Give the backbone structure.
Amino acid sequence: MKVLIIEDELSLQETMKLSLEREGFVVETAGNYSQGLLKIEDYNYDCILLDIMLPGGNGLMLLEELKRMGKKESVIIVSAKDSIDDKVAGLNLGADDYLAKPFHLAELNARVKSVIRRNKAGGSLEITLGNMVVYPDLQTVKINNKELVLNRKEFSLLYYFITNPNRLINKIALAESVWGDHIDQADNFDFIYSQVKNLRKKLTLAGASVEIKAVYGFGYKLVTE
């Protein structure tokens, strides 16, 4: 799961980033309006944490741009301005939640997981496909009610597939969703092939009724038997 933090207070930005990474998220950051705009234009995220007061512009303007582009990211406004007007304005523009500074990191993590769950799984604590059940909050997968042991990247790959079932996914989109925008620095996609190969093998050995099919020259698709 991939999160973007748009926050100009660098110490807070780093603290939030480290906390979310410990929870298993891929986290990217932007420190001002223009950086945030570039990120939302070029990449897709599961959740965006958005400060209102930013150098070079207003966070609510970024939220308007996000909605104008037709993107579906969950958005949590994170701001020291704990006023009713700001909260109402953000929610009216399509934000999913509002978190006032200062806040506890445990609450931040819980809010992020909650809005992603509501967006991706219709509010459910689990996502079911065939005989496989994925628990995003716990980063746990069960097949025929037996836990499937995956490493963090394998789980992130599977989560991306199960939230995009039967959709043909190219290698670049898959890499960006799991490794972040640093994928631009990669020379090839050998690491993707390796991780997907291991994931496919584990699903097969566990008797999963879903399969990750390779589409030659393009990418992969998660299908049910």
